[in-house]
Amino acid sequence: MKKDIEIPVAKDVHVVVIREWNDEFLSKEWNVYLINNRSDAIEMTIVVSKGFDGDKKTSTMRHGIGIVEAKSFKKIEFLQEELLALNNEFFVTFFAENKLFEKRFLFPKNSITENSLTPIPIIEKDGILPEG
Questions:
Q1: Which residues contact 83 (CB under 8 A, 6 or more apart)?
Q2: pLDDT digits (tens, 9 = 90+) for 8-27
Q3: Does residue 11 come out as left (phi exceeding 0), alpha (psi in the -120 to 50 range) or beta?
Q4: pTM for this structure?
Q5: Cα–Cα distance for residue pair 65/42, rounded to 1 Å
Q6: What is the mean pLDDT of residues 58-84?
Q7: What is the pLDDT of residue 21?
Q8: What is the CA radius of gyration of the chain?
Q9: SS3 call for 79
Q10: Exposed (0-12), middle (13-18) or buried (19+): which is 103, by Cβ within 10 Å?
Q11: Which residues are within 8 A (CB) of 119 and not within 5 positions of it... i.e. 6 or more apart?
Q12: Strands 27-36 and 61-68
């Protein structure tokens, strides 16, 4: 029955956008990271990302991240400048505590800007946390 189904709440796992210098291209770029701020590792981690705004849509990207150790982070993808004008959505799915967790992160269109940068824990760089 529905009342018997437990839907675990994913806590202390975050998707953030970091503004950082690229030595190869000698410019600043936006990169998306997954942060595991839990006290245990998360396993079989998958991130599905897409951008959208009305009729405009990007391809759906799937990233197999694998294991993300406790209190650590992994880079997901580079975010092109033209995608900042779209809503950017990330679904994170992972196993922990012998359970399957899923969490949605949304960066509304035009919310990824230099003016929105704040200190990001674990990574110790300036970046953007999604709303909510």
A1: 51, 58
A2: 888 999 999 999 988 887 88
A3: beta
A4: 0.91
A5: 10
A6: 95
A7: 85
A8: 15
A9: strand
A10: middle
A11: 125, 126
A12: unpaired
User: Residue 6: which residues within 8 A CB-CB, separation 6 or more?
Assistant: 99
**H or E element that contains 49:** strand 42-53
122: left (phi over 0), alpha (psi -120 to 50) or beta: left
Q: What are phi and psi of 16, to 5 degrees?
A: -130, 155
36 burial (CB, 10 Å; 0-12 / 13-18 / 19+) is buried
CA distances to 58, 60, 70 from 19, rounded to whole Å, are: 21, 23, 23
For the stretch 30-67, pLDDT in tens is 999 999 999 999 999 999 999 999 999 999 999 999 99
Residue 38 has what DSSP assignment? S
Is residue 60 within 8 Å of residue 49, measured between CB atoms?
yes
- The residue written with tokens 């079989």 in the block is 44
Residue 127 token pair = 């970046």
What is residue 83's predicted lDDT score, i.e. its pLDDT? 92
